[in-house]
Amino acid sequence: MENEHKVMDDIVEVGRRIYMNGFVAANDGNISVRVGDDEIITTPTGVSKGFLTPDMLVKVNMDGQRISGNLKPSSEIKMHIEVYKQRSDVRAVVHAHPITATGFAVAGIPLEKCVLPEVVLSLGSIPIAKYGTPSTMELPEAINEFLPTCDAVLLANHGALTVGVDVFSAYYKMETLEHFAKISLVARELGGERLLTYEDVDKLMEVRRKLNITGKNRGCMECSKSD
């Protein structure tokens, strides 16, 4: 059982960070942490993530039914629940709209090219899930096919989703995703990325194994090198 007070404090801090970094605007985005076999603490709907307090958070079960808290849970809780159902290793989910990464999602361009060693090691290539109407089962169904192999997914015309063993792990993957998107955009404006070779990626995946870096990683879709 997680220390729920610490989990709540951590969710509030991550909410502040995604807001201050411009990963969300207004009341956008949602964060959750699984604290038991059938319990999830999530951000509420209709509240800015930059101004959360622990008492605003809501606990729900794996059916999305509220257990405690005075506010309504995030309208995207179905998407979070789908992650937890498919991935027993995941304990936290962050959904945000980082500007550059979301630009790639809106343009229909996945971040699948292996160009940065840090991204190859941590996330691998990042796909785009097809568009799904927010708050419906369309979004959980859209991400379902990528969950077995990905810790980060772009959401077509919507934003991005990252997962981790705790809420900071999930948040840092969102930072990495947006950083990767910014660098990719600049490189394309300068004439295009120079890709790592198959051999480069192979060496990095070996480093990943030696360092025992956890999480799912699709490797490189350009050269079909995967973990």
Number-wise, the strands total 8
What is the helix tally? 7
- When the domains are counted, the total is 1
Question: N-to-C terminal Cα separation, in Å?
Answer: 31 Å
Largest sheet: 8 strands, mixed
What's the mean pLDDT score?
94
Helical proportion, percent range: 25-40%
Structural key phrases:
227 residues; alpha+beta; L-fuculose-1-phosphate Aldolase; eight-stranded mixed sheet; 7 helices; 15% strand
Task: List the SSEs and their pairings.
Blueprint: H1 4-20, E1 30-36, E2 39-42, E3 58-60, E4 66-68, H2 77-86, E5 92-96, H3 99-107, H4 117-122, E6 128-129, H5 138-144, E7 152-155, E8 159-164, H6 167-189, H7 198-210
Helix pairs in contact: 2-5, 3-6
Provide a descriptive summary of the structure in words.
With 227 residues, the chain is of the alpha+beta class. It has a single domain, classed as Class II aldolase/adducin N-terminal domain (L-fuculose-1-phosphate Aldolase), CATH 3.40.225.10. Helix content is 37%, strand content 15%. It is built from 7 helices and 8 strands, in the order αββββαβααβαββαα. The chain has helices at 4-20, 77-86, 99-107, 117-122, 138-144, 167-189, 198-210, and strands spanning 30-36, 39-42, 58-60, 66-68, 92-96, 128-129, 152-155, 159-164. An 8-stranded mixed beta sheet has the order 4-3-2-1-5-8-7-6, sandwiched between helices. Strand 6, helix 5 and strand 7 (152-155) form a beta-alpha-beta unit. Helix 2 (77-86) packs parallel to helix 5 and helix 3 (99-107) crosses helix 6. It is globular.
